[in-house]
Design a protein that fits this description.
Elements lengths: L21 H29 L10 H8 L2 H29 L3 H28 L18 H8 L1
Helix pairs in contact: 1-3, 3-4
Length: 157
């Protein structure tokens, strides 16, 4: 029997390999993270776009600054970021495994996917936790209007 054919339905069952079944845990992760992401994203959209008084028009730099000043929303966004990027990376790994038949190319592509996911997770996490609305170094493009709440807050620091 070659690798491209299926065993007959009544063929003797092969004993499972020893160790952790990464495919099974990847499959479980996709289901659990998918459900969590639906809850996280729908809540994110409600809080950002539906519940504010002006709806989507309330979404601006000050709104984001207010959310990122709260550890709860920082962790909410980081959890959403991690789950979404790992979910997407695992999905890409599955697609590569299904359609790329050359073992070296498949291994290389999967490694590239996980490297990109790792950089994006680290970069996004760094941005969320190091966000500073008052940063004025290196030519900050956000000029604080005199009399604005953000300008007053940054001047008080």
């Amino acid at each position: 029997m070659t690798a491209d054919t299926l065993a007959a339905p009544r063929a003797p069952h092969r004993a499972p390999r020893k160790g952790v079944n990464l495919e099974k845990w990847g499959w479980i992760y996709m289901r659990v993270s998918g459900v969590l992401l639906v809850v996280l994203i729908l809540t994110h959209l409600m809080v950002n776009l539906v519940l504010p008084e002006n709806g989507v028009h309330a979404l601006n730099f000050a709104f984001v600054t207010g959310k990122f000043s709260t550890p709860f929303w920082q962790w909410w966004d980081v959890l959403m970021l991690w789950l979404a990027l790992i979910h997407g990376g695992n999905g890409m790994r599955t697609i590569i495994n299904d359609y790329v038949h050359n073992q070296k190319v498949r291994t290389t592509l999967v490694a590239v996917v996980w490297i990109v996911v790792a950089f994006m997770v680290l970069g996004g996490t760094w941005v969320v936790f190091s966000f500073d609305p008052c940063f004025d170094g290196l030519g900050n493009p956000f000029q604080h209007e005199a009399g604005s709440m953000l300008a007053e807050m940054c001047a008080a620091q």
